[in-house]
Design brief:
The structure is a single chain. This protein has 353 residues and is α/β, with parallel strands linked by helices. The protein has 4 domains: 68 residues, 434 Repressor (Amino-terminal Domain), CATH 1.10.260; 137 residues, Arc Repressor Mutant, subunit A (Orthogonal Bundle); 41 residues; 51 residues. The protein is 54% helix and 7% strand. The protein contains 17 helices and 5 strands. It has a 5-stranded mixed beta sheet, sandwiched between helices. Strand 3 and strand 4 form a beta hairpin.
Length: 353
């Protein structure tokens, strides 16, 4: 085993932004022990390992069995994430890795099949739409389906603990897992997903991840926002639907009406009209206010996970690759619930055959 455990403790400690002194205080133990564990000079007890995995929100096997590959933020200019964000990253990265591993075990290919460009150009949007075979007006469900079936992007929607995060995308050697904050409105989630697609097509390198916050002044975040607006509100479609007299007569009401037609927020529609010179930010009577729920419930279970992920867990268990207890951990559910779920799957298979 060498120093796998020590290296993994150090890897996850640094990824989660913990100092040695902080980890030692939470275990609790002497800080010198953390140094010795990480150097491989001493092996931690099972009790210590269980405590460390609990602190980092990991399964025990992540600390014991797997050497970790360095995983870098795609663009350093984004600045350092907070400790809370870093801990969320550790948790989501585990789900993403499990997802890919489960599907690989049953020979399901998850490699990205989509387009890649070097520099953003609005003229490329038509190619992307055609490649994904999208309708003129995109909604959340048809976009998710197209990304999964055409480009092999795996999408997971769960409520994120850090409420200001709209999306996080992981690139594991050209295998993409996108997390979208389910606590946000459907319009916001569609915009966030489109924003993440921009990162995939233009920004993310291998073994990298990128956090998208509700507000960011970084250039690639601005570019991703612009991409999302132009992708969801094509100029030709807006021209066909837009009526200047209705804008001036109805103002906020008309902007909200247009937003509903294009499945975006009123705020997004106002920004797009502003970019086209049709409204100005100082026109307060025109500017709609979009309020987002800041106190959404964080509770979720296996039903929030993608069908392919749940299917992957079931078939890994069916083939004897994982135990029922491990299946329950993968599905973030009670073992009794998972046992009943798998019985239902078995019954359905029997009916079909």
């Amino acid at each position: 085993m060498g120093n796998t455990i020590g290296k993994n403790i150090q890897y996850y400690r640094e990824l989660a932004k913990f100092k040695k002194t902080e980890l030692a205080r939470l275990i609790p133990c002497d800080v010198s022990l953390i140094t010795r564990y990480e150097k491989g000079e001493r092996q931690p007890t099972l009790k210590i390992l269980l405590k460390v995995s609990e602190i980092f929100g990991l399964s025990l096997d992540k600390l014991v069995n797997e050497d970790q590959v360095a995983f870098q933020l795609a663009t350093r200019g984004l600045g350092k994430e907070t400790k809370e964000e870093a801990q969320e990253i550790v948790f989501l990265k585990q789900i993403a890795e499990d997802y890919l591993k489960l599907l690989k075990n049953i020979s399901i290919d998850t490699k990205y099949r989509g387009l890649r460009y070097t520099n953003y150009d609005v003229g490329q949007l038509k190619n992307i739409r055609q490649n994904l075979e999208l309708p003129d007006l995109i909604n959340h469900e048809n976009f998710k389906t197209a990304l999964r079936t055409k480009w092999n992007i795996q999408i997971i929607e769960i409520p994120l603990k850090i409420r200001k995060i709209s999306g996080i995308t992981f690139n594991f050697k050209n295998h993409f897992i996108v997390f979208i904050n389910k606590g946000h409105t459907e319009e916001r989630r569609l915009f966030s997903l489109t924003h993440e697609v921009c990162h995939i097509v233009y920004h993310l390198e291998q073994n990298s991840y990128l956090i998208s916050r509700l507000s960011s002044r970084h250039e690639i975040e601005k570019e991703a926002n612009k991409f999302a607006e132009e992708f969801l509100i094509p100029s030709e479609e807006l021209s066909e639907n837009f009526r200047m007299e209705k804008l001036h007569n109805l103002k906020q009401e008309y902007i909200s009406e247009l937003a509903r037609k294009f499945n975006v927020s009123s705020e997004c529609m106002f920004r797009d009209l502003n970019r086209k010179g049709l409204v100005q930010y100082h026109w307060k009577s025109y500017r709609p206010i979009t309020d987002y729920d800041k106190n959404y419930a964080l509770k979720w279970d296996w039903k929030d996970l993608p069908y392919l992920y749940v299917f992957g867990v079931f078939y890994n268990w069916k083939l004897g690759k994982i135990t029922l207890a491990r299946s329950a951990r993968y599905l973030y559910s009670d073992i009794r619930i998972v046992s009943n779920l798998f019985k239902e799957f078995d019954n359905q298979i029997e009916k079909v055959s």
